[in-house]
Amino acid sequence: MGFFNSGSIERILISEDEIKSAVKEMGKKLTEDYKDKENVTVIGILKGSCVFMVDLIREIDLPITIDFMSVSSYGSGVKTSGVVKIIKDLDSNIEGKDIIIVEDILDSGKTLSYLVGLLSERNPKSIKIVTLLDKPERREVDIKPDYTCFTVPNAFVIGYGLDYDEKYRNLPYVGILSPKEYMDK
Ligand code: IMP
Ligand code: MG
Predict the structure, then answer these.
(1) Which of 104, 106, 143, 165 to mutate to test the pocket of ligand 1 (most atoms within 8 A of CB)?
(2) From the alpha carbon of 164, which atom of ligand 1 is closest?
(3) How remote is the CA of residue 49 from the centroid of ligand 2, in Å?
(4) Lowest mean pLDDT: which of 48-62, 78-92, 155-169?
């Protein structure tokens, strides 16, 4: 039985095709905006951005390097704890580099605001944020993504890297999780 038929997904919010063309367009935009930069590093925030990251970097037609950072802000539930824990730091030195942070979703903004502060102290030349999804209604701190593929309503979404309790990351689309999935728990 597939995920969709199991009733855990209320509906598909963004289809596989819509994601594909948005990622392609984002890659083109970044290629244009960074074509004159010499040291571009794309940083994926694990695990949520992993699917978006691998698709996006293949649409950037420039000699970039990549790195990853793993942070946790949520535990296993749907609400933010406000605490950001670094589980894996970058492997590389980002001093003097143009940094593009790749995120799955900007929700309260706490995770990214903390990360931007932390990475800024390492003296990169610039830091910009690319997010697959933006949920602006939920923002608690003043932070805006520089590049957004899709703005989404205030619902818990899953798929294309986004999880609920570590599941659903492998869905090829973004869907809305049925509230019954977390209300019964
Ligand atoms: P923020 O610190 O509240 O902006 O939360 C950022 C992180 O929370 C994201 O990188 C996601 O891992 C997770 N998150 C926030 N909203 C959702 C959602 O609707 N579905 C799945 N994960 C989410
Ligand atoms: Mg997550």
Answers:
(1) 104
(2) 21
(3) 9
(4) 78-92
Statement: the pTM of the whole predicted model exceeds 0.85: yes
Protein residue closest via CA to atom 3 of ligand 1: 108
Q: Which residue has the tokens 């730091």?
A: 89
pLDDT score of 180: 81
Nearest CA to ligand 1 atom 11: 105
* Full strand arrangement of the beta sheet holding 126-134: 85-88, 65-72, 40-46, 98-106, 126-134, 147-151
Q: Reply yes or no on whether 107 is catalytic.
A: yes
d(CA 67, CA 46): 10
Distances (CA, A) of 73 to 36, 77, 104, 185: 35, 10, 13, 20
Q: Give mean pLDDT, residues 2-8.
A: 70
